[in-house]
Fold each of these.
Amino acid sequence: MNRRNIRTLQRKKESKKIKFAVFMGILFIVSGIAMYFFITHSFSVKEIVFIGNRHLKNDELRSLIKVYKEDELFGVSGRELYGRLRRSPWVRDAVIRKELSGKIVVNVTEAEPIAIFNIAGRPYLIDRDGNILEPLKEGTVLFLPIIKDIDHNRNREAYAEAVKFVNVLNRRTLSYGGSIEITGQRPEDITLKLGSIAIKIGAGDFEKKIERLEFAKDEIEKRNIAVEHIDLRFADKIIVKPAGRSEEVEESGGEKKTK
């Protein structure tokens, strides 16, 4: 057999290998598509279970995900279901699991209301990030701090500082039995109102300011004086203004002194 015939045979063999590889590739793709459609259309939803929801009812969560019994189990992706759930401000996070038995398990982490925010005289519940959850229902009594007189659209920095302060305030147990209000149109004007007493907080360093407030509160109770306002905005002193005069509580060298 001459060289020319040998080369021809080799080319035919290579051509057959290429055709076989292409055929197997197409077969693999077609099989994959067929399997995908078989899985997505052969399993239906038999049960939907919600875990972790305390505020939102199961029916409310079902209306969010828009998946019902006998729907295709894999007709809607988990990512899409997650996105639908997150449209509710009450849903902070969710984990969705689908089982071949037809069961969908939705584990929900709900937002926690940390304060009441008054907008144009109407109270709303807000979460730790300042997101509005829902209007406070009439007749509902919640012992939460109240943020008021702050325009959260125009004065975003002041509102953000007020929310940060409330988060710190809720972590600390401030011994006070009355209403707690936070106001201020600018971050430096953030003011805490405990009943009739105005406490100027300002921006930042809230943990230390609450510690200093507790100290000032103890001193005021010991001396049994009526207070008009307290100013905690200075790093080295606390200004307490009783009726008719002012007193300073100074902090220096780690010691606190009244005068």
Note: The chain has a mean pLDDT of 81.
Amino acid sequence: MVEQLRAFLRFLRLNRYASAHTVRAYDSDLSQFLDHIAVSTGVRRTALAPSQLDRTALRTFLAELHRRGQSRATAARKLAAARSFLRYLRREGAIDEDPGALVPTPKRDVRMPAHLSEREMEALLAAPAADTPLGRRDRAILELFYASGLRLSELVGLDIDDVNMSAKVVRVLGKGRRERLVPFNRSTASALRTYIADRATLVNGRKGKPMFVNYSGGRLTTRSVDRLVRKYVAATSTRIGISPHALRHSFATHLLQRGADL
């Protein structure tokens, strides 16, 4: 079963264009699933047969997750990984049926995702210093996050050529390497133009075309942008857990409040 798992992970990486983070998550969840079956059947994981990954194995795996206090969302994610693996095994002819289709998904707890109010967003956007290049860069980052709903990885992956100022759109390479055009508003365009004027000074002749750079001209990392968002949120709001991902929820929530159909 170890070889089948490796083959599946290669399939995700090469055929589904899954990111390294996604492949690691599948590897972790499926390894836990296979370890559970090995323990419950009394055999080593390397000796497991595909036929042992049946409906009973899935149900006892979910029961074990519940016993350990795992959330319903976590259990649902791990079940989804197992289902994907089982569908792959069926397509490859390793099993005759798809037992994952027979096991219901745990109902998730409904919680409102963390987000900022419009007033809090206004304070956040005004927080970066307007008299320094890095402050103006941070303002552009926050404006673009809020106006576009980009993912953190998408924002840090932008190159200068991906930003069309005249059309007010950014070209984004998202999940599955699918390209899309995302519009932004005039306020964001103004912040971006101001930052772009500073960018040449920050880059200082360094090669490459990253849109958002650090003080030495290199591309900002996801960790750096996460830190700066949390820093400004802490300075302007008492909310806990507001991350770049939460700004996506703020973007979507405010659109819904204004009557948009998402």
Note: The chain has two domains: 2-102, 118-257.
Amino acid sequence: MMSPAPSRPSLQRASLLDLEPDLAQDLAPELHEALRRQTLVPSVALRPGLFDPEALGDGAVPRGFLVLHGMVVRDVRIAGGVASDLLGPGDILSVAEPEDVLVPVRTRWTSCSHARVALIDDGVLAVLERTPAIAGRLLLRAARQVGRLAVLRGVSQLPRVDQRLLALFWLLAERWGRVTPDGVVVPIAVTHETLGRMVGARRPTVSLALKELAREGSIARRRDGSWILDRSGLDRLEPPEMDMAPPDAALLPLGGAAA
């Protein structure tokens, strides 16, 4: 079966500081208006479906994009395996692959529901680089994004798939969750196959683990496709003390004598 055609974007131009006001929080008032005019970016509304980041602009390939709202799924394929992660508001992504990458990968992007992204080109990037107040805010976002990926990598190392799913859903709740009297609702409709790609498990195993989590009351799927989490499930994720041996690794000098 053929994959659906990539979604065709609808572009609007606006100041990045209007689209993301928190980036200007540390700016001196006298700089704000001038930088508003210098940071005009295409804001792209994505319909649900596949999209090509390199084709989002109005000619030149953007250097990267910033998710403004909605959700984007990135699938990364290495050999026969596929890993997926969900990207949301505030996440910053590079369009071009780094030149020093050795491991061959294929990347696919999908817009879920109606997402909107801001494209970052060379002109705006130059303004950001010489404006420490904005660059610092973007650096903080990137650091948080890297931190979330580190936690997700830790989730994939948990021995039980039900633990991995429980941790994953609480990670999703940190970004998209809504507190209700019955629990924390995660308004994300996601298939068991995609969940498996996020935690490193096969779809049948994910289905069995979700049934177990539902039986014990930790996670339940609602009729509208969203999920509701019970806070008691967090107790299962409490980590023990760091009592294992420290990593036994060292960076060896290049050009040393052969063994």
Note: The domain at 10-155 is CATH 2.60.120.10 (Jelly Rolls).
